[in-house]
Every structure is written in structure tokens, then in C-alpha cells.
Amino acid sequence: MRVLEQAAPLAYQESYDNAGLQCGNPQLEIKGVLIALDCTPAVVDEAIARGCNVVVAHHPLIFKPLKRLTGANEVEQTLLKAIKHDIALYAAHTNLDNVRHGVNRKLASKLGLQNLRILAPKSGTLGKLITYVPPTHADAVLQALYDAGAGQVGNYSQCSFRMEGTGTYTPGAGTNPFQGTPGQPETAQEQRVEVLLPLHLQGAALRALRGAHPYEEVAYELLKLENVHQDVGSGMVGELPEALSPQEFRARLRAALGVPVVKYTEFAQPIKTVALCGGAGSFLTGKARAAGAQAYVTGDLKYHEYFAAEGQLMLCDVGHYESEQFTSEIFRDLLTSAFTRKFAVLIAETLTNPVRYDF
């Protein structure tokens, strides 16, 4: 769970979502992991047959609140079977959609897109931590904050700002000040140190600050920022190595994703800039147009949503399952790199896509 949530923090899931451990004991000793896009009774059966006691899925099995557990529907049947056979169920859903190296990055790589950036970066996920440190300890405090995940700005690490200043204080009775005498006003040279940090790491950053700071009472300010986080958000946009005609681009989609059908809107211009969003992404059509994309690839478009293209780009609906089918590769790569030879990590052979095509 720590490995998965370091890559896709639960704090980045949408408010309606239910990512994380859905069923099972967090202390369970793992025998094998089965990875699937969806968790169904057939997937749990496959996990049992293949000796796996953990199922990692993209879509949460428990999405809406359960009022009872009687096996009345497929969700309840799946959950009962998992509990009976001591199988833990874990889901990383919109939190994996919303990170730069997640679902949309994988889809973009399958299409060969370059110069990738988040289509709709999120705001309200960053904070600024300010503290005041003796110059002799500023480097040590900053290093502790960096190690806790602060100071990252895009592809730049160990980012900070420092400013010299003068601090004043009077230590109280019974204190053990770093500098000065209890009961006597004191003036000290200090550095004001500022770093950015993802807000979900504030607990770790504050523990690191207190551990490295020489003062008994650490003065700090933690401010929530409205800045967008350029590595967190919905969708992705990038460029093809060379422009393609709309027909050539749709052929590329079918070949890269192995899809039998692409539903699309008419568009006559060459395709160079492509926006995409795995799953149901109609809410980003306007963002795709604003980003200058000539094509927007997603799934689950309804009839009237196709009109949102307004002739300014080609909307391509490849299907919900089809746009997220490679998510299993993300889970596999994360787990196999972190736990080499610890336990089997298998991709499910069960097809969970409920949609079939008749030609």
C-alpha cells in the first residue's frame, strides 16, 4: 500500500471516489498479487486459482455505500467471496488518473506522444512552509525537508528561498534556549527559509522540521496555495512525432489500442497536438480545445457531447475499458520494481470489459 500510495497518493483522488484498501487486513502476508482493471467474481476466482491473496484493481469495487452484505448483486457477491477466501482488495482510481506518471501517461506513451503535460492541472494541492533557522543549521533543516518530499518544482529538486533577518524572543522560566538566557530578551540572526510541498506531505515535513531544527519551539508558517500543481491533474496533452491526417490518426488509434471501433467527429485538418483522458473524459473537451489539440481521445461520450467539438477538433471515443486497459502495466511495473522476487505479480487473464462489438 505504501508503494502504491507513494506513486498515486490517496489525497489526489476526486471527492466522489473510494480508492485505497477496500477489504482485507493491512498486515496480511502477501502470497501473490493479481492485477485487473475491474474486480469481479470471475477475477476473484482467478486469484484463488492462481494462488493470489491480493487483487489490485483500477476501479473500486465499493464505489457507493453498502447498506447490507447479502450477495444480492455482483458487488456484494464479489466482496463476500473475497472475504471468505481471505483475499484483500485494493483500488487506485482517480488518484492514479491524476498523477503525471499514471493512466494518461501510459495511454500517451502507447500513442507515441511527446512533450507531455497535464491537460487540466489541479490547484489547492500545494503549500508553502516557512520557518526561521540559525544560519549554522539552515542546510541541515533544508535537507531534512527535501528528504520529506518538499522543495520539488516540476523537474527541479531541492528548491528553496532564504533571506537573512533578525529574530527576537524572551525565553521563559524552565526553558533551554538554543541561544540566550531564560528571562532575558534575546536577539538572534536567523534565516527565513521557504519551500513548496504537496499538502498531503505536510505531516512528514513538519516531523522532519522539528527533528532537524535546533530550537525547542519551532516557529513556522504553513500556507495553502492556489497555484496549480503542474504534475497533478486530469488528462494529458502532447504532440505526435509528425502530423497525421485524421484517417491516419484513427488508424494509429486502432492499432495502438487494439480497438475494433473508434467513434469520432468529422475534422479535416492534420493532427499534430493530441489531448487525451482515460475513462470518461467529456468534461475536458473544452480544455482540449483551449490547449490547441486537433484531436481529443477519451471514452464514454454521449450523443450530445460530440457537439462540443464544434468543428475545432476531432473527438475520438475509443471506449472506457479500451482507454484504461494498460493500467495493469502501471501496477505491475510499480510492484515488481519495489518487491523483486518477493511474491508473484500477475495480470489477470479474465476479461472484465462488459462491452462487446458485433460487425
TrEMBL record:
Name by which UniProt lists this protein: GTP cyclohydrolase 1 type 2 homolog
Cross-referenced InterPro entries: DUF34/NIF3, DUF34/NIF3_bac, DUF34/NIF3_sf, N-reg_PII/ATP_PRibTrfase_C
Coiled coil: none
Keyword Metal-binding: yes
Residues annotated as transmembrane: none
Keyword Metal-binding applies: yes
Family as reported in the entry's similarity comment: Belongs to the GTP cyclohydrolase I type 2/NIF3 family.
Organism, as annotated: Hymenobacter citatus
PANTHER family in the cross-refs: GTP CYCLOHYDROLASE 1 TYPE 2 HOMOLOG, NGG1 INTERACTING FACTOR 3
Record key words, sorted: Metal-binding
